[in-house]
Amino acid sequence: MTAPPLPLTVREVVGETAEASTIVLDDERGGLAEPVPGQFNMLYPFAVGEAAISLSAFDAGRLTHTVRAVGPVSEALRRLEPGAQVGVRGPFGRGWPMRRARGRDVVLVAGGIGLAPLRPAIHAVLAEREAFGRVLILYGARSPADRLFIAELESWDARDDVDLAVTVDYADGGWRGRVGFVTALLPHIRFDPDHTIAMMCGPEAMMRAVASKLTARGVPASDVHLSMERNMKCAVGTCGHCQFGPLFVCKDGPVFTYAEIEQLLAVREI
Amino acid sequence: MTPLADLVRAHPFFAGLPAGMVDLVAGCGANVAYPAGGYVFREGRPADRFFLVRHGRVSLEAFLPGRGPRVFQTLGPGEVVGASWLVEPHLWSWDARALDAVRAVAFDAVCLRGKCDADPTLGYALMKRFVPILVARLQEARLQALDLYGRAS
Amino acid sequence: MDVGAAYRVPATELNVLVAALDDAGYAVWGPTIRNEAVVVDRLDDAANLPHGRRTVQAGGRYRLDATGDARVFACVHGADSWKRLLHPPKVRLWRCTRDADGALDFAGDEPAEPRPMAFFGVRGCDLAAIRRLDDVFDRAAAPDPVYEARRNGLFVVAVECAEPGGTCFCASMGTGPQVERGFDWRLTELDDADGHRFLVGAGSALGAELLAPLALAPATAADETARRRQGEGAVMGRALDTAGLGEALVARRESGYFEQVAERCLGCTNCTMVCPTCFCTTVEDTSDLAGTTAEQHRLWDSCFTLGFSYVNGGTVREGGPARYRQWLLHKLATWWDQFDACGCVGCGRCITWCPVGIDITAEAAALRAEPVP
């Protein structure tokens, strides 16, 4: 437990999909430390409770979180109106390896709501596009209607210096894009395995499959980064809930290298 | 060497296949094209070919009464479409449709099966290319079926 | 600092020490007997310490017997520990009010008692447990405000065990029965041909400062010899072979042996509640009916509950084997990775207070004997 939450005002709430919304908070006074891509905040809708929510974007004075409704806290966050206040603690955790990624090809693989924590990394790469090699974004969603940030996906797709591939698990006849699991996109992308940083976020089963395919392609496990999810209460490593073997996901992660956690990922119910 | 043999050699599916085998395989092939929306094959019909996609994308779909066509996989340039020609009773399990204008090389199944039977080395080389793809697709289909991004029940 | 020269305190004069702490402004806490078990409570007088009793402890068993003598510290701990005072079972972290415009205002944690605490009679195991909690609540780098408010200014009076309990194994864990650091005063109770008496030595400058005005008689060489012999003669009820233990357990974390333990384990959480190092907590959010005031409380939690590892959609550690594994491996293996120490201090409480007598020393040894899967 650190200091009590800081009240921040909701600037806007944007519905992304039937289940997910993006909540933009004002922190123009800079009450919280500047986050880095991959970190999360603890959000507290009044009288409901706290939940760990990744930042899906940030810039001066604005903290953006994208949340999928899975429980009372995330439901309450989605119902917030502009002008309402939420309590915020953060930012917490170890983020994406942005410095290590410089000069390398960057492979970003997202599944479902996992695109949200990756988005600040994509923003950081695109803000200094020339500092990185190839930029490949692979995104798997449940269905076309479950895609997050659709306008932004289109803007990435329109760029010559970004390779974006979106695939969905299920589609009806109206969808013109790809259908299939996100791992099916991997054989078609080109990168230099010796000079690549991979970052991924999604369900564990998806990340295990993606990470093993990337390492099979020759990317060292220490260059493959995964963002993990566990129950978090305190966010500073004292409540014990997020333990993953010897690791505290809240403070040692949420971003880990595959080298650090490959063995743990193979242990059931750890 | 025919232009078709060049296409076969250049396709990732046949990467590294010895020249003699390329010629054998290409001897069973023909260029084909499908307009957007056109069927490449239909469920239940004889699986007498397989396809190497060169341009455009093909969707594999099932038609569900009351729900219309459900797409479960799309395949694009550099990928292979069709495995039912390999196994009895040589009937397509699904519909395959061109999502946009598709150009592909189609291989005659009877011709190719005959050559493989006559030359098991060729058959083995072909199997070594098909099996990893089929296993990968099986794994992907399983991950898809797990509905990992879906709302927890 | 080294432990300063020891002084003699006659058995009848022990309250001199308690009174000195009270005079120095401390809220003194110590062991006492309530409902036939040793608990930690406010100590107004040394007479309230558990005289003339000893604990009879075994797996799932706890009883107080008469010693037939006047010794005070023959009686080791009960289920309770000093953890309760430093890391309260329930504490308010903050209170939040919402005004008519929807603006939120957060106010910090529940104030601790204004007087610093003195713990009178901390055993070696519990002394080590306080060091473990100091690591968890990160006193060195980023102290937890709730813990720090209680831990800061704490005066520790350690006591050396002459008669360890039947489930004790501090000697295996290197935490007792004799103690050499981490206290302000160290007490040793002696009851031999030279009579019933206490030795007290200072382990800190503050401890020495508070002892000085008491004008106690110095301990004799014979007293020191008696102290050493008493420590060497203390018989542990249990032992745990710690050599290479963490690695051995991690190598067997997928062993089927956990299924066997889980068949006996009730998942009652007793072991985690009585453990002096188990620190896990959850939070509870409450609000008033008017919807204008809300609070967040921190409560002890246990890795044996299903909700503990809940993530969106389900519980990670669904099975009893996985939950027992989490606890055992955290205590004896992964704690080392996290805090460079062992999470178990050898107090034996989890054995005594387990309703089915699951014994951490026996389970660790049995697991170690299993083949690596």
Could you describe the 3D structure shown?
The complex is a heterotrimer of chains A (about 270), B (about 150) and C (about 375). By secondary structure, chain A is an alpha/beta fold. Chain A has 2 domains: about 5-90, Elongation Factor Tu (Ef-tu), domain 3; about 100-265, Rossmann fold (3-Layer(aba) Sandwich). Chain A is built from 7 helices and 16 strands. Chain B is an alpha+beta fold and about 150 residues long. The model of chain B has no long low-confidence stretch (mean pLDDT about 90). By secondary structure, chain C is of the alpha+beta class. Chain C is globular, with a radius of gyration of 22 Å. Chains A and C meet through strand 6 of A and strand 6, strand 7, strand 13, strand 14 and strand 15 of C. Strand 10 of chain A pairs antiparallel with strand 5 (about 70-75) of chain B.
Features:
heterotrimer; B: 153 residues; alpha+beta; Jelly Rolls; four-stranded antiparallel sheet; 4 helices; C: 373 residues; 2 domains; eight-stranded mixed sheet; 13 helices; 30% helix; globular
What order do the helices and strands come in, and which of them pair?
The complex is a heterotrimer of chains A (270), B (153) and C (373).
Chain A: E1 6-15, E2 20-26, E3 40-45, E4 51-59, E5 62-68, H1 72-78, E6 85-92, H2 98-101, E7 105-111, H3 115-127, E8 135-141, H4 150-157, E9 163-168, E10 171-172, E11 178-179, E12 196-201, H5 204-216, E13 224-227, E14 243-244, E15 247-248, H6 249-252, E16 255-257, H7 258-265
Parallel strand pairs in A: 7-8, 7-12, 8-9, 9-11, 12-13
Antiparallel strand pairs in A: 1-2, 1-6, 2-5, 3-4, 3-6, 4-5, 13-16, 14-15
Chain B: H1 3-10, H2 19-26, E1 29-34, E2 39-41, E3 49-55, E4 58-64, E5 68-75, E6 80-81, E7 95-98, E8 102-108, H3 109-118, H4 120-145
Helix pairs in contact in B: 1-2, 3-4
Chain C: E1 7-10, H1 15-23, E2 27-34, E3 37-42, E4 53-58, E5 61-66, H2 83-86, E6 90-98, E7 104-107, E8 117-122, H3 124-136, H4 145-151, E9 155-159, H5 170-173, E10 185-192, E11 195-202, H6 205-211, E12 217-218, H7 221-233, H8 245-251, H9 257-264, H10 270-274, E13 281-287, E14 293-300, E15 310-311, E16 314-315, H11 320-339, H12 349-352, H13 360-369
Parallel strand pairs in C: 2-8, 8-9, 9-10
Antiparallel strand pairs in C: 1-11, 1-12, 2-3, 4-5, 6-7, 6-14, 10-11, 13-14, 15-16
